[in-house]
Amino acid sequence: MWKGRFSQDTSSLVQQFGESISYDWRLFAHDIAGSIAHARGQLAAGLLSADEFAAIEGGLHGIEADIRAGTFEFKTSLEDIHMNIEAELTRRIGPPGAKLHTARSRNDQVATDTRLYCRGEIDGLITALCGLQRSLLDRATRYAATVIPGYTHLQRGQPVTAGHHFLAYVEMLERDKGRLADCRKRLNVSPLGSGALAGSTINLDRHAIAAELGFDSITHNSMDAIADRDYIAETLFAIALCGTHLSRLSEDLILWCTSEFAFAALSDAHTTGSSLMPQKKNPDVCELTRGKTGRLVGNLMNLLVAIKGLPLTYNRDLQEDKPPLFDSVDTLRLVLAVNTEMITAMELREDNCRRAAADPMLLATDLADHLVKSGIPFRHAHELVGKAVAEALRSGTPLDQLDFPALDPAFGADAAAVFSLDRALAARRNPGAPSIANVQAEIQRWREIPGLG
Ligand code: ARG
Predict the structure, then answer these.
(1) How far is the centre of ligand 1, averaged over its atoms, from the C-alpha of 385 (Å)?
(2) For ligand 1, is residue 110 a contact (CB within 6 Å)?
(3) Catalytic residues
(4) Do 335 and 247 fall into the same domain?
């Protein structure tokens, strides 16, 4: 492609070192769509005859069909997807193929291809996230009234419903979708026409080319358009944060599946056994989801460090943007699919949940609130209840069975009534609180959101 200036062939070691075709072949459909739009721009500008355009378009479609059929031979010597396709096009259709690269560079080509790739994958990830949200909504519906302890510091805190716990993850995933959609908005602009870095003296209608590719608008600075990889960093961040959320869900489920918690049971289809210990049923999907989050965060770091300090505009370092991008997209896609399936089939062990939630200590705060309602300042109420807790622990008496009036007259005769779990939960009816009625209303609200019904 650059033989004019050179008198030596590229060393085979350099070819091996510099190739990206082993991974960027995946951009073929975007590369071809970009080339057809560019050729149509050339046609409109009078740079191609109708016949030449038809030959280019037909040739590119033929190449695309061969790649899909697995019969296209990618050549490492041709470095990347852009040169593999262009060289093969020229081989197939002759001179018109050699005109395609007019007013274009691989630099604006690769920026176009990766934007189209991110756009498509973001749409797919958002759809997959909706699927996972639906499976969580389904579990929230099934266990809307199942009371479990809510934890802080992994110590029992206050009662919540399992439905509320599942809905917490639906919220996180909704924000993950929002971040991806936001990033999609920013990246959906066409860099085509930016050339190598300074546009071209041959002016094609950039707006028409952008519209054909479904871009909302065009980039406004050729140097930025060539050098920018923000959109990949943003995509990787949104994916890494989503993975981080899922790693927390994984950890909750891992804990819930222990004999110590025993709140949940994953299906046999979504767990593994031990080759040595016959009794084992391991939550590998959760552990791998948690583990793969390391890759997702690493991929983001990989790209940020690669971009850091690069002078404008294109530097070959930027070729390293694609392996982390592809890896994160592939990883999250699989994580979402397997988690959706696993959560759909997961069941709670409601008897154990009920037993754990019956711990009267969970309602110590409610007892303090009860004192507050009779006019005692919260700090004072907190101290009185703290003393009651200490007495319960000292004497081995369950908190709800203490002789409250004897402990302190401030408790009043009705203190023990605080320990009704049903009442305690129903009282948590402020917006955002976990009462069963709230959870049901929230499920209703979620179901009305497009993609979640
Ligand atoms: N394979 C290259 C990449 O992914 C395409 C752009 C090459 N541009 C260049 N000036 N060498 O970055």
Answers:
(1) 68
(2) yes
(3) 153, 274
(4) yes
